[in-house]
What we know:
- The chain has a seven-stranded mixed beta sheet. Strands 8, 9, 35, 36, 38 and 39 form a six-stranded mixed beta sheet that branches.
- It has ten helices and 39 strands.
- A hairpin with a 4-residue loop joins strand 33 (601-605) and strand 34.
- By secondary structure, the chain is an alpha+beta fold.
- Helix 3 (106-115) runs parallel beside helix 6, helix 4 crosses helix 6 (188-207) and helix 5 (162-179) runs antiparallel to helix 6 (188-207).
Amino acid sequence: MEKITEKFLLEKGSPKTNRLEEIKKLDLSKLQLKSSDLPVKLFSCLQSLEHCDLSGNRLEEFPKNLELPKLRFLDLSDNQMEDVTSMASLSSLEEVMMEDNLYITVSDSYKLMSLLPKLRSFNGKDITSTANHVRFVFMENLRTRMVALWEKSYSLPVPATAKKMSALVTDFVNEAQKKVKYGPNSISDFTKWKVEIMARDYLRSLTEPKEDLSTNINVSTPKKRKEISLLDCGDLRLIPRKKARSDPEDDANPATGRQCPLTPRRVFAKKEASPINGVQSGGEEESSNDLKNSINKTQPVRLQPLHVLQCHSKQDNMEDFSTQIWSCAFQPQLDSEGSRLVATCGGDSLCLIDCETGMVMKKYKISGEEFFSLAWSTILMSRGGGASTQPCRILAAGGKRGLVKLIHPRCNVAYGEFRVSRRAVSILRFNHRQGNFLFTGSYDNKIVLWDIGGIDSNYNFKVVQLLTLESSSTPLHICLPPTKPEAQLLAACEDGLHCYNTQLAAKGGTKRSKEAEVTFPVYEDKDFNCHTVDGLAFLSDDIVASKNFTHSSIYLWSWTRTRSQPPDKNGRVRATVLAELRWANTEIPYLALNTCPGRSYVMCGDNEGKLWTYHVPNLQKGKFQAGKPIEPTEVSLGHRRKYVPVPLNPRLFRSGAPVARPCSQGSRPGGRSLHQQRGRGPRIPVPGGPQ
């Protein structure tokens, strides 16, 4: 690439002139420029520049401290931009194009709205309304929460030495970034970035009285928004709950009741502000930390309703109650924190929902498809140019067409698909030890292991079929043991629970049959001839929860003790049952159960829209009597205690971390007769548990 000189800029600029100061339009597109190729001193001479095209290059960031006072339009499309904060000096910028920058996220667009006071268009779309919301309402809510945290837990040291102040700044900034949250999870990076800036500015204002922060706030806040700054943040409540006055989070919407444009799409979502079951407001309030601390392995959880959602209806018709939601799963986190983002599938669409706000962040539709299953995983993305690979969270979804769609939600890219079967896909499950290994179950009675590999910056990928497991009926659930042995798989099928060996052979042997069938005590009843296992999940490294819809109990059994037994002549092993949980008396199949291993909880829906929960923290100690089913666990709803089952219907609940429950009962086209008659019920994913 030719070195950028004054002569080069004069040739690329217009109108034609011999002075850089008179150039108004500059085209430097498709020159393979890197950030280091843009000399700040030379570009600073472009004081009349209004339109600049830098698209089709290899820029990772815009040159820092480059002031172009008249620049109104900047095109950075098709680059390798990773950071936008260096554009803060472009105060007159009104339009920015940043399409086809792989690492630019929603958070980066919010940063631009915050940094550039005149920005009104981003990637060709008018963002005036959203930008005003970010600059005023959003910033004010963050500032209110940040100040409340300071007033509750911090004070200036006496004496205020440089060492003490430095430690205080570090501690307060870190704590503010953890606790001050507002808005959807997709902009959490922006929130942390802005909170850090606000926290440092606020502490600076406390030690420099000449800069009155409150005065600045009142001056910059419009009259319609001024009442927000007067709200008492209390104990920094970050979740909806009982309260005696308005919560600042509720003020994300102005008093007019209009929805603030924080997300790409609005849905029918109602925030449950009032206590459930008619309990009056008031009483002693608990902080979110108290709530989280109350949820442990020895204490029952507290449930609080958050939202009622209807986001899979045909053509967004609120009267459509026939479209069924078949599956949902929480996005895996790269750190130890739980996830607020849940993916759901039903009808012809997939939705990504923020459980805190109840907003549909993204929606993916395929006309004529009906999605039955989805699964998250983390694979590696190569960035090219010698850069190191980075983890990338993807979503796989399949349904009646027999195809698996691969989606990178963060960048809004459905980057590929491959055919699993000529029949419908019944279940998807990624290997939690190797994120590029995907197990698929389908209505042709097969479970197939695929290696979907990684992706490059252009989303090129390759799929390889590794193994086929033959079944005698449709696989409904797939579970992989959390610990060794690693090459084992449990498949809940319409004719029983089967064990498979998934160890890859060096040569041949790509097709296998089951090693054994796990049987249960109820099978000994001669009148009991239905072996369908329609619910399966690991509660711990050893304990498995499973159920048969015709037997009104859920079995908890030991995986290691069961597999240590030699199969009989019919290839069967008897499950070593540890406990039996009393469940609903129903003839409706496929009401799926799930577990929360970190909290020792088993959960299962029923045909009446109720949620049955069981807290079994000391199961291995043998405190439960054989033959006597364990009753559902007492749980707390708000400030009332009640024995479950609890009527839910489609709701999202908070119990330290969100628990999402879709509600669907119906039939899947292309399935076997049992599916066609009764359908498959809700799936209940839990963050931290097997998905």
